[in-house]
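Page 47, continued from p. 46.
Same chain as before, 288 aa.
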Amino acid sequence: MDLLGSILNSMDKPPSVNEEQKKLIKRQKEMAEKLKNKQKEELMRFRKYVEERIGRFAKDDRPHIEFQPLDKVHRAVIHEVAEFGGFIAMSFGCEDVDRYSVVYKKENAPTEDEIAARRNRDGWNEEIAKEYAERRKQQRELENEQKRLARSSAQNSNNTTNKQSNPAPITEAEIKPTFNYKDKYAHLIGQEAALEAARKTETNQSYGFVPSKNKKDVRSIEQTLADIQAKKRLKLQQQQQEQQQRQQEEEQQQNTQNPETQKADSAKNSSLASQPPTSSSTSSSTSY
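Result:
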């Protein structure tokens, strides 16, 4: 604790707030609170204004009412009041530029032409309604024409396919060949090529075909295992024989490569056998 206390005592104290700064901070908080309350009061007055206007709109014969361009908060108030009263509220225009709200009665809901016109910033009146109606009519006629052309092209394609699949019968009078094909291939088939000249070919039964019964393995499991073991034993015997043959061949090669050494060894052994024993050998034998 002494170390901690010494560290805290050595540190600089936080700057003290004088009376003027306290007053300034207090004044700023009061201004922020006043501004907040002012905004709340303004929104409450705007909400009351919207409620009164929509109330008058519900009693008259107007199909819709428009509000001036407003920010997002005020438009949200309009939408909330309209939905609470059972009306339709929609906004059009660009945000933070000229976006405004329009309130409709449910029985006079906006048409597709009106929505498109307002989104295109063309407004809405009788002239614009006639213009958009004419555009819609032309568009419908164009779509009907495209559908008719598509149906006609489909029918034509079906007719052509039917004609190709079911061609009209051709009579003998219509068939008039320009030349006889036999004349072209006379050097190959002759002048009298007919079915009588054809030779019936038959498959050769001696090769090429094996009955399926000959392909089946009719052996039992025991017989199959015995055959496998016999094959293994035969293979081992063959390997042993081959190894023995290789060893014999190697021995023969070694014998053929060193005939002189063998002769020298045999001559040395014979000479040693023919020499008499020395005196040292006899003396050693007598001493014992």
